[in-house]
Amino acid sequence: DSPYPMGFWIYPKFVCWNHNVERFTEEYYYYVEKVFQQMANTRCNHIQLPTPRPVRDENGKVVDFDFSEVERYTEFALKYGFQYLQSGFIAKWAEWEDPQYYLKWFEDDEEQVQVESLEGYRQLCMYIEKIPHKNIHMFR
Fold it and tell me: In the chain, which stretches have pLDDT less than 50?
């Protein structure tokens, strides 16, 4: 083992674009696993997992989170010996110098929910409560 850890993340849109596949399909996960293999061969031992997708009710309100992609990435990471798994980003700036943070689980900036708003706090609390216990090690 190298004393110098390496960390990476996988940008799902680029996997789809580079291999002309749809996200969340078995073909997509085939290429994601190949990326994990290649990273392991370069002694990468840190990986940032993707951010889970929000699940909405019939009125568009976020009521749950889909961790299925996170779970698949976790399986690959453990299979290839990654030692450190960290959660995906949960907040971002809309603009680099913007003092406000916004929730990150919305694709392509479809929605801007401030972290410090009541709705942002509600979603963050739900997100933390919904983290699958079997994946809790992703925060160590």
Answer: 135-140
